[in-house]
Amino acid sequence: MNTFFRSVGTRPHAGAQTLSRLAAGLLLAASAHAAPPSTPSPKITAQELPAETLTVTSLAQAPTSRVYVADVAISHIIDGRIRVFDATQGRFLGMVSTGFAGNFTLSAKADELYVATTYYSRGTRGERTDLLEVHDTVNLAPKYEVILPPRRAQALNYRGLVRATGSGRYVLVQNATPATSITVVDLTARQVVNEIQTPGCWGTLPAASGHRFSMLCGDGKVATITLNEQGQVADRQVSAKLFDADTDAWFHHAEQVGDRYWFVSFLGLLTELDLGGPVARVVRQQSLVTAADRKGGWRPGGYQNFAVDPSAHWLVAGMHPKGAEGSHKSPAAQLWVFDLQTGQRVARHPGKGTASLTFSHNGERLQALDGMTGAMNVWRWPGNGKLTHLSSVTKAGEAALHIESHD
User: Fold this and answer.
1) Rounded distance, CA 175 to CA 103, Å?
2) Looking at residue 38, what is its pLDDT?
3) Separation in Å, CA 239 to CA 82, 97, 182, 251, 274
4) Residues near 322 by Cβ (< 8 Å), separated by ≥ 6?
5) Are 32 and 25 in contact (CB under 8 A)?
6) What is the rounded (10 degree) CA torsion for 185, 190, 194, 198?
7) What is the C-alpha separation between 374 and 377, in angstroms, rounded?
8) pTM of the full predicted structure?
9) Reading across the β-sheet that carries 201-206, which strands appear in turn?
10) How buried is 394 (Cβ within 10 angstroms: 0-12 exposed, 13-18 middle, 19+ buried)?
């Protein structure tokens, strides 16, 4: 036993000898491959950046082929804005703040931008101030403002919520408390001159000239109001019942060429009105959907969901299949083109998720907003129902639903 333990304690173990030799080898290998001593890095001298200079420019030299895209910015709604783009190239040109759920319109010459909006003294709370802000479209700068009664409709962007009369003298602003009324702003005097009670009626549809405007009413009638030179009501008349809001309501969006206005119903009935006289007059009606289309559930959908070109020859509508109660704001699966002279559909195009449409005033472009992604798509319009892609903007706004053309 003693001999055994002496033997174990004094003789090197074979495994230990192997580990010793391996460790030595690794040390030698590491020594052989060790990096040479590092040399100091060259000293880098930071170059001083030139001082930044803020400048103010204008759109005087910018192309007139531009569009104004209203973004209600729902996730931070006190910070709405209008973005201005070059429609032919998709280039961003500038921006105008529109405050809390502001709505806008352009003057007939597109030299002024009218924004009806609201501000609160503490941002999202506090004292409320409603304003009509007048901006010029060259510098996108404010020219002056008029304080409004604190009853302006704080609503998503729609064309009829702020409009100038055909004379250009008055701006009409929609109110809702929820009682409805119209504030009349005299641009010459730069002050509010009237508030017209309009129970059950909504939006403003100005005649091509003078101080006359019409409104859609919930009972299916159209009210027409004529103002005198002082902005007071000189005449008010109501049409016969033109639609049934329970069975087939009209979209509030309307297209105007002179005194002619077009309306589309939820089920696809197109109605043309003459709003130049003291009482609205129906010119004609036609359906945008055939019997076969109805079987597929095709219906109009969107916000600014159809457009009529300046010659009043062509209409383009955003359409979706499998329509049902509540689908009237669905973006377009297809864009349908109609010849208004013959009443025939002449083309179908991919819908691009379109929720809002407008033609340029020169009739050379069709411009659209994608209701799903906020993209803007612009096509060249040759006047034969065909569409040729011109430009796109991936994100024209967060909640962009209203688009107007400058030219």
Assistant:
1) 12
2) 61
3) 36, 38, 19, 18, 12
4) 296, 297
5) no
6) 10
7) 10
8) 0.86
9) 201-206, 212-217, 222-227, 233-238
10) exposed
Q: What is the pLDDT of residue 67?
A: 98
Contact present, 139 and 118 (Cβ < 8 Å)? no
Mean pLDDT by 10 residues, the chain (407 residues): 38 45 43 54 79 86 94 95 97 97 97 98 96 97 97 96 98 97 98 98 98 98 98 98 97 98 98 98 98 98 98 98 97 98 96 98 97 97 93 96 97
SS3 291: helix
Q: Can you give the pLDDT at residue 53?
A: 85
Domain ranges for the chain, please list them. Answer: 66-405
Q: Which residues pair with 19 in a beta bridge?
A: none
Alpha carbon distance 236, 46 (integer Å): 74
Cis peptide before 321 (omega within 30 of 0): no
**DSSP assignment string, 162-181:** EEE-TTSSEEEEEEESSSEE
What's the token pair of residue 219? Answer: 């009972």
322-355 confidence digits (pLDDT tens):
999 999 999 999 999 999 999 999 999 999 999 9
The CATH class given to the 66-405 domain equals mainly beta
| Cα 301 from chain centroid (whole Å) | 15
CA distance 86 to 97: 18
Residue with tokens 């400058």: 406
